[in-house]
User: Fold this.
Amino acid sequence: MPRSSTWSMVWLVAMREVRTRVLSKVFVLTSGLFVLAIVGGGAFFAFFGPDSQDASRLGVTSDAAALEPALMTVAQASGTDVEIERVEDDAVEEKIRDGGLDAVLSGSLPDVEVTVESDLDSALQTVIVAVVQQEALAGEIAELGGDPAAVAQQVAEAEPQIASLDDEEERDPAQMIAGFVSGILIFIALMGGGQRVAQGVVEEKSSRVVELLLATMRPWQLMAGKVLGNVIVGLLEIGVIVVAALATAWGFDLLDASALNLGSVAVWMLVWFLVGFVMYALLLASLAALVSRQEDVGSVISPVIGIMMVPYIVGVSIAPWNPESPIVEVLSYIPFCSPFIMPIRVALGTAGTGDVFIALALSVVLIPALVWLSGRIYSNAILRTGARVSLRQALRRS
Amino acid sequence: MARLEVDSLTKSYGSVQALSHTSFAVEAGEVFGFVGSNGSGKTTTMRIMLGVLEPDAGEVRWQGRPLDREVRRRIGYMPEERGLYPRMKAGDQLVYLARLYGLDTAAAQQAMERWTTRLGIGERVGDEVQKLSLGNQQRVQLAAALTHSPDILVLDEPFSGLDPVAVEVMSEVLREESARGAPVLFSSHQLDLVERLCDRVGIIKNGRMVASGTLDELRRTEHPQWILDGPAGTSWVTDIEGARVIANEGSRTTVEVRRPGAEQQVLQAALALGPVREFAPARPSLTDLYRDVVSSDDPKEGER
Assistant:
């Protein structure tokens, strides 16, 4: 007896969806382009962007070695990343030209000499000047009978309070970019995947292949298979992009100075994609089953596409610049909107794990109802070809 | 007993009565032709058999038991409107469908190759279905109905759009399948083909099975008809009691005989007027039978 277990049918349908899509030229091409754009953009940023995030490398000769602790302290206080290494006196020039050192400090106080290839990096210059001045000052203080260490402490602690008129904290640009990009990415993936499901349903209906398929399985199995297959395709699609982004960020050390936790952003994005996709795909599949021609798909799914646009626009146009805006916060909890906005808030670091789980729960509890509703619409409408089936008809007939 | 029984199926779409108490049976090893005008209920009947539609009343049985899912998966089905993914390669598509019917990958691949070769489309399996001619698409469709070696064949207009060679191939395949022991049910508007191919025929009209049986059974009319090739016109028959002219074309006249022996009087009357070149009982073709059945207004028929 041929096996026909419920899930093997769903799986067969899903695998057909995956194979047709993943082996298509469009998929390979778009994924390739995305990866290229991400890696290229990362590389561009790494080579031509501000390299303040890289540690400056400073060499000290044995004469200047005494300054090393002071250099470290001042660099830390001023937020400059400095690595210090010892350099032999006769290797100064070689180390600068070939050894990757930005500057070498030689000589002892007060005749300190800084050797550089062409210009001294301004941040490094500030540190060195401060140290030299501080050391000079310490000499004078000691001569006057004071305690240089205590003075240095006072100086280090004397920092002006900055009062900004715009009541906004400074945003980490990496977080903003990540928020913006995840907003766009999830929109593209949900929109593209959702439309693919809708078109796939109508393709089966208009070519009547659905009649052949339904002779072998139940309508819900077919719908479940289609949704599952496209979820897998979407995860692959978004996964390729996310992996490319992670690899680029780590490979080029783009995020050393950022508070952005790209790993968790990526994981949450995949989770939200999954939730959002299942919800939208069910809705779109059932709506698409109402019509029999590809030309009519657009009109029947347009209300849902309209719903998708709202959180997307709010997400990318308000959230990255004003993540505490009430509309952003409220929409990030509402099912059907949360998949677009929550990932942005996660990327921006304005949503805690608790917030995310609450929003997730609100969406997930809706899914069983959605499965029931869309299953009913789909089963009732999928074999009625011809004129568009009204929602009421599809719901009424059992 | 291996027979496919359709038992008083009734189905309405809203206010439209598509089927009312349609019943017939197809024996194992028999080819059954299903004819009727467009919208008469053939497709609805087949869809109900496949479980694609639910009947309002009645049932379909195989070997005495109502069709369930497992039996339905043993049916080879060719839907009226061709159902194939236009942008999928013919071969992949057949393998996929065969797998849905429960074959494993290797068996599905093998069946696909066997049937595409048999149906003369072996070289086209790598082409997308939409790139094939309609006739070839039709062959792919038939292959899709056959790859899982079905126990029952239900084909909705398998011959429409086929060239004469393809019609021959298709006919042969149907005969082979019935010889293998499967009941074969197909619908068609090509009545000469049905006449040639089928062991039994069912004529459906407005959702009712109005005639079914072997061709000879269908021909057995209540009042025998005779064809006579002799005098022109029909006036010479009018005086004979119990004889009525059904059709007349030049010198050929078809007479319906309502009183035994009246045909002899017809012959004598004709001979009296001149030579008679032919005088024989009429053996109406299926086309004639169909025309009679479909054009007659059956008072019992009620609202559609």
In short: Chain B touches chain A through 29 residues (CB under 8 Å).
